[in-house]
């Protein structure tokens, strides 16, 4: 779908307002679950995932903390401290890929979710579902990866569980981690704090992880040197927030990529997001692989990046602070928030036109985390 992002031309007419309002009313509706069985699309992080979560889980478990639908819940203790709590399961294939393994993902994924909630990660749990016949030597290697990732992120794995299932029931190994972190006093990231004119920052190249896993499967005859970006970004977040204390909102673009995260922001804030294609940081090899496969890199997963919404007066300082860190050397300001297009994400292309970036539909890259 193509169109034009409204400019300052005196404002839309009454008829145009009516059309915009109808479109926005349609787009604000939560996706409805019409499926009778679970499909792979329900795990892709897009519209089908949102429908499943909303209709099955949120509907059954509804409470004020869950209704925020963030990467982690922020909970107040009776003494007034605030803790962030998050959990995630990892089912990637292959278990080891260029740049990392399921062990690295299991730690980095939960640590990063805590950081997106504004917390300083502290403790993790780890649960393993192991398929009968899984080699002990391979299990030791993955656990060693987890230990190294935890040490690098400054967290401790303090409790856990193991289950063994019959051959064929777990595709080798599934790992679930949960984490707890402490939220500093006065810090709160929320879509409700986002304002028109705010800038959008991406902390580095997009699409590395999803592309690396896709190529590592060996199903495609593409010879490209791409490594996963899996990493703990909590230290990078702290550096950015020190330079930009009015940071509005954070999210890590894992399943569904940058495009889906920006749509979640638009829906939660009721504001539009305009991205600039020329500012999007992407490796040429990743862009080339996506072109060959007909996949939009905006929807390809990352495991060591974040999207931040910043006060425009602090955006340059935030960018400088992020770029000063090794994990953020390729960071860029990729767009801005606007009230001119409703709760929509638009991309200004390199040719001067625009197109709508909708919520991901389907599952272009299954089992990437």
From TrEMBL:
InterPro entries to which the protein is assigned, alphabetical: HypE (IPR011854), PurM-like_C_dom (IPR010918), PurM-like_C_sf (IPR036676), PurM-like_N (IPR016188), PurM-like_N_sf (IPR036921)
SUPFAM superfamilies associated with the record: PurM C-terminal domain-like (SSF56042), PurM N-terminal domain-like (SSF55326)
Gene3D superfamilies membership: PurM-like C-terminal domain, PurM-like, N-terminal domain
Family matches, as Pfam families: AIRS, AIRS_C
PurM-like C-terminal domain boundaries: 195-340
UniProt domain PurM-like N-terminal: residue ranges: 71-183
PANTHER family assigned: CARBAMOYL DEHYDRATASE HYPE, HYDROGENASE ISOENZYMES FORMATION PROTEIN HYPE
Family according to the record: Belongs to the HypE family.
UniProt protein name: Hydrogenase expression/formation protein HypE
Organism: Pseudonocardia benzenivorans
